[in-house]
């Protein structure tokens, strides 16, 4: 009966293969639900958006935002990157700045549209507290310089929970509050670890139950919903469930699709990266960071394959 213990492993491999097949079968970067209203032209005289991606460190763009960058590029939008630090925690700031430019070459983002700051009050580190007003002011400078109409950044958890990422989020929120949110459309990358932790999880489940997927009796989605509820009933730590999601690679496409299709107070989309190998290439441009465990991270991370964006 030893073979019976191999069934879960075989099932996981099969699920991984099916999920990867689902992602690779997309002819181009796409969104779920498919929606032409995701970043439509703002004015008749300008068909594409001027998007500003605001990150904390060189490599954030490749490690976390690659599906979004590929999606926006495929739609003809003009991407700019503002990186708030050189990532100098290990004294490699200049090297890492250059590596960001190399990564942007793989994304086909012109180097003149990339700004890497080295401000004494914005240094890389878990124990560095970044001033939100300063971040808002620096963002405003680049918004005006590049005529930005759309901002993209971290959510309040900051994807990995890094305090610098979280400060960038709060800096953008401060900028939006102080400079008229009406003129700028802002989107945040939803953190898989943060999304259904804590009290919002009940609200999340209620939204799932009311979602049109359930009405349509979609078997796969109900299976995932049952899994989530069983996890709650059996007392499995939700944090563990979410860590599983974060490192489930392409498998998370099913639950992310369900989340972005459920009724939500704010618009939410799942963006699918139809060429995950290009994420790998972009991250490989960060040679000083390209150690074995980051290679594994890029392979197993859901952020390589999908991004969930939510309107700020
Ligand atoms: Zn970072």
UniProtKB/TrEMBL annotation:
Transmembrane feature ranges: none
Keyword Signal appears in the UniProt entry: yes
Family: Belongs to the PIGL family.
Gene source species: Eragrostis curvula (weeping love grass)
Keyword entries, A-Z: Signal
GO cellular component, one term: membrane
InterPro entries: GlcNAc_PI_deacetylase-related, LmbE-like_dom_sf
Residues making up the signal peptide according to the UniProt record: 1-21
SUPFAM superfamilies from the UniProt entry: LmbE-like
Name this polypeptide is given: N-acetylglucosaminylphosphatidylinositol deacetylase
Matches recorded under Pfam families: PIG-L
């Amino acid at each position: 009966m030893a073979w019976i213990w191999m069934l879960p492993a075989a099932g996981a491999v099969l699920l991984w293969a099916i999920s990867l097949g689902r992602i690779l079968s997309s002819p181009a970067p796409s969104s779920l639900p498919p929606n032409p209203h995701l970043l439509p032209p703002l004015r008749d005289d300008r068909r594409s958006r001027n998007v500003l991606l605001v990150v904390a460190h060189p490599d954030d763009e490749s490690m976390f935002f690659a599906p979004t960058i590929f999606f926006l590029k495929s739609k003809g939008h003009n991407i700019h990157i503002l990186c708030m630090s050189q990532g100098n925690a290990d004294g490699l700031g200049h090297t890492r700045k250059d590596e960001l430019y190399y990564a942007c070459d793989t994304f086909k983002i012109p180097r003149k549209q990339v700004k890497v700051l080295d401000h004494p009050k914005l240094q890389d580190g878990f124990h560095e507290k970044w001033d939100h007003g300063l971040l808002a002011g620096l963002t405003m400078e680049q918004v005006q310089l590049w005529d930005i109409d759309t901002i993209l950044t971290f959510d309040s958890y900051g994807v990995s929970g890094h305090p610098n990422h979280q400060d960038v989020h709060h800096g953008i929120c401060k900028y939006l509050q102080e400079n008229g949110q009406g003129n700028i459309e802002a989107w945040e990358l939803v953190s898989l670890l943060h999304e259904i932790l804590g009290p919002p999880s009940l609200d999340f489940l209620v939204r799932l139950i009311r979602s049109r997927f359930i009405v349509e009796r979609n078997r796969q989605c109900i299976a995932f919903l049952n899994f989530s509820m069983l996890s709650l009933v059996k007392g499995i730590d939700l944090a563990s469930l979410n860590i599983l999601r974060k490192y489930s690679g392409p498998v998370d496409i099913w639950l992310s699709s369900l989340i972005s299709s459920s009724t939500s107070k704010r618009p939410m989309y799942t963006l699918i990266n139809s060429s995950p190998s290009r994420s790998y290439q972009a991250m490989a441009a960060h040679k000083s960071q390209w150690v074995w465990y980051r290679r594994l991270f890029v392979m197993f991370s859901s952020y390589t394959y999908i991004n969930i964006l939510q309107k700020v």
